[in-house]
Amino acid sequence: RHSQTIAEIMGRFFSDASNQRLVFSMKDRLPPASELVQAVLRLFQKPSLKGAIRRQSKKFPFHSYASVTIYWVQVREDGTNRTYVIDSRRVSIHETGWITFDVSQAVNYWQQEGKVNQPLVLEVSIHRENIGPMSSDAHKFIHFSSQNPADGELHAPQLQLHTLDMEEYGAQGNCDPDIPSTQATRCCRRETYINLQDFKWTENWILDPPGFKAYDCVGSCQQLKKEHLNFWSFSAQRKCHVTSTAPLPLIVAVREGDKIVTKVVNLYNMKVTQCSCSSEGMPIMKKLKP
Amino acid sequence: QMEKKIQESLLRQLHLNKIPVLEKADVEHLVIPDHVRTKYVSLMKRSSEEPSPRGK
To answer: Residues 250 to 269 of A: which have CB under 8 A from any B CB?
Structure first.
């Protein structure tokens, strides 16, 4: 404020969002041998009073939408909370009925924490679509049904977990070295040894290691059934993919001026550590921040 | 395929345009210093312990 050299821009609080927390008990909902394909949060939008909507539409004829954002709430050891944006969509005040959000990432974050007895906590924020003098109050007309019997028991928030049994749909770990892999083999990690000494260009240059186990992914995956294909948007062919890798460290000799020195280089993604079956187009889940 | 991948990754990390040519005599008496060996061993250990997500 008192500095001559720093231009000051005043800010104003402009948000009057309404936030609600949803708590889902996850105990025994995701069996250990299952893989989460998609988690869907369903909220029932209650009809707003027609008179109120009419008045609102008259005042702001082109602004009948609000934004609804879903957050995952991480309850940390020290009791503090951290929120992560999961999904967001615009919702019209004229709509009523079920609205769906993809909360797969939230369930994945919850799984990463490994606290199976902890519930999944989501936060629903209903806020203005735009900020500015012309922004409407449409967000004040959006209301979702709760578990309250007055809202109708069938309209309580729902979490749908779509899972696949990995015994049937997953990869099988390492390939059997005694059986040659073919297309009919179930997806597995095949051991391959890369002998660096076999390559002419590595001579007198790559000092260590002489070779390494690289592995690759071979085989095919069980395809989804018809009922899955009707439901999931990414139900393309399931293929055997590399899903986890490790780096390869090397000691190399390099010329620096007149001298030859040794260096360590770490080459990323050189060793396959895991193969999995997945459909193309499936979203890649993010890792939790430390 | 793997050979090409290793070669490209190595050149990129060392900021080299082409494969360096070293004679046997150049490296014959080369001693790998302890700090280089220690770093290599620790990376090797980590590499076999922790799988990292693809694309890291």
So the answer is: 250-255, 260, 262-269
d(CA A219, CA B44): 29
- d(C-alpha A6, C-alpha A182), whole Å: 68
pLDDT, position A204: 87
Tell whether A244 lies on the interface with B, counting CB pairs under 8 A: yes
Q: Which residues pair with A245 in a beta bridge?
A: A272, B52
B55 CA: distance to closest CA in chain A (Å): 7
What are A250's strand-pairing partners?
A265
For residue A132, the SS3 value is coil
- Give the rounded distance of the alpha carbon of A211 from its chain centre: 36
**CB A192 within 8 Å of CB A272:** no
A-chain residues within 8 Å CB-CB of B51? 244-246, 273-274
The 3-state secondary structure of A200-224, one letter per residue: HHHCCCEEECCEEECCEEECECCCC
Residue numbers of A between 106 and 165 with CB closer than 8 Å to B: none
CA A193 distance to own-chain centroid: 34
Instruction: Choose between A233 and A289: higher pLDDT.
Output: A289
pLDDT of A235 strictly over 70: no
DSSP element (H, E) containing A143:
none
**Mean pLDDT within A248-261:** 90
ipTM of the complex: 0.86
Q: Which residues of B touch A264 (CB under 8 A)?
A: 36, 39-40, 43
State the Cα–Cα distance between residues A123 and A194, nearest whole angstrom. Answer: 50
Are A285 and A108 contacting, i.e. CB atoms less than 8 angstroms apart? yes
Q: Which residues contact A124 (CB under 8 A, 6 or more apart)?
A: A19, A20, A21, A22, A43, A68, A69, A70, A144
